[in-house]
Write a structure and sequence with these properties.
429 residues, alpha/beta, TIM Barrel, eight-stranded parallel barrel, three-stranded mixed β-sheet, 15 helices
Length: 429
């Protein structure tokens, strides 16, 4: 992509904005008593039917790229049975982007998987490798004439590791607060907890046919990490063989890991779990997608809470847009291919803070480019307010809001602000 313009746009994920992704594992869990989803996605933002309106808003604001996902559960609703009608829907999205001067950046898997895959062992089974390879071949066949430049195979391939980290840290925090006897603290109804766990197992058996379904966002074993990396590598090979002009990679969720005195070892372990463990499998990829939202500070006793008085986002993260530059630089030390910022954003009801977050984050991107780091794109998360998984619709990341009853869109100032950045920063990469 020599002499192509730097890409500035926004991102979405199919399940979070399209609505009615009924063949997916996450849709199934939304319907369950013990599935972990207190709110259902339902119609989401109805992006499935309104994508033209939304892409047009993106274009009219001055952006030049849109990262979105194909929904595997729609395209392959039954194992080995592909739906050309649904494939055509995504081809129509690609072509609509192209017709409007918007560069489509495609993600093949963004958290949601076909329910049938989980029933067959999910992301802890070797079956996932073959299944994802077959799915990728079908996509590549259909994209052969579409002049696609970037395809991200798997979104946040390290998410299972991050969830395991958060669980481990929660346990450590509980021990610090309550002592080693925390499992017997006053107020716990152990009989009720046991019954709930039994109910969860029973429901999982009924819905997925197994006690602990290995969905993509489950805490992951080492075997699970290896399976996801093998699935990614198989997909990259397919894309390089069938679409030789496409650049392939994956994305990782990366906090800006920092150490205070005594926390160096803990910080190094966290960075290994978030990034370095996956490096051998991606080192020869064309690009890596960097996704950053905040920083993580470590001291001698583990991860530290945000400093007193620090601004927090709706997600409880520290408002820290400077983390993006730090992460890009650290990734570049080990990975010499292209870097795409595939997600960076903030959950807030105060759009002036979103404008400030984007401004400061993008200043860091420009500093990286000025220092010769091959950053090729900046995608804000997200284009639309959306179904933020187990947080439901309460987290407002979007550059565009919408009324959940009428689906009427409300364009926020932050969309125009990002558009002005795009219009003023037109460099060849």
């Amino acid at each position: 992509m020599n002499n192509e313009l730097f890409l500035i746009g926004a991102a979405t994920a199919g399940h979070q904005v399209e609505g009615n992704n009924t063949g997916s594992d996450i849709w199934a869990m939304e319907q369950m008593k013990y599935g972990g989803y207190p709110e259902k996605s339902l119609d989401a933002a109805d992006h499935y039917n309104r994508y033209k309106e939304d892409i047009k808003l993106l274009k009219d604001a001055g952006l030049n790229a849109y990262r979105f996902s194909f929904e595997w559960a729609r395209i392959e609703p039954k194992e080995g049975d592909f739906c050309q009608k649904e494939m055509q829907h995504y081809l129509d999205m690609v072509r609509f982007c192209k017709d409007n001067g918007i560069e489509p950046v495609i993600t093949l898997h963004h958290f949601a998987s076909p329910k049938w895959l989980i029933e067959k062992g999910g992301w802890e089974s070797e079956i996932a490798i073959e299944a994802f390879e077959r799915y990728t071949k079908y996509i590549a066949q259909n994209l052969a004439s579409e002049d696609i430049h970037y395809i991200c195979t798997i979104n946040e391939a390290n998410m299972g590791n991050l969830i395991s980290i958060f669980i481990r840290q929660a346990i450590e925090q509980r021990k610090k607060l309550d002592g080693e006897s925390s499992s017997m603290q006053i107020g716990l109804n152990l009989d009720e907890m046991r019954k709930e766990e039994e109910g969860k197992i029973s429901e999982n058996l009924e819905v997925f046919g197994c006690e602990n379904p290995a969905v993509f966002v489950s805490p992951r074993t080492q075997k699970g990490n290896e399976i996801i990396m093998k699935a990614h590598q198989a997909a990259v090979k397919v894309l390089h063989d069938m679409l030789p002009d496409v650049k392939a990679g994956l994305s990782l969720s990366l906090r800006d890991v920092q150490a205070t005195a005594g926390g160096e070892e803990r910080a190094a372990k966290d960075w290994h779990d978030e990034f370095e463990e996956f490096l051998p499998a991606i080192i020869d990829d064309d690009f890596v997608g960097v996704q950053n939202y905040t920083r993580a500070r470590f001291g001698a006793c583990g991860e530290l809470s945000p400093e007193e008085g620090a601004e927090l986002t709706q997600m409880g993260y520290e408002f820290y847009p400077e983390g993006l530059e730090n992460v890009i630089r650290k990734v570049h030390e080990a990975f010499k291919g292209e870097i795409l910022v595939t997600e960076n954003g903030v959950a807030t009801d105060d759009d002036t803070r979103r404008v400030e977050f984007i401004k400061r984050a993008f200043e860091g991107v420009k500093e990286c480019i000025a220092d010769g780091i091959p950053v090729k794109a900046y995608m804000y998360w997200s284009l639309l307010d959306n179904f933020e998984w187990q947080s439901g619709y309460s987290m407002k990341f979007g550059l565009i809001g919408f009324d959940r009853k009428t689906m009427e869109r409300t364009v926020k100032d932050s969309l125009y602000s990002l558009g002005r950045i795009c219009e003023s920063y037109q460099i060849n990469v």
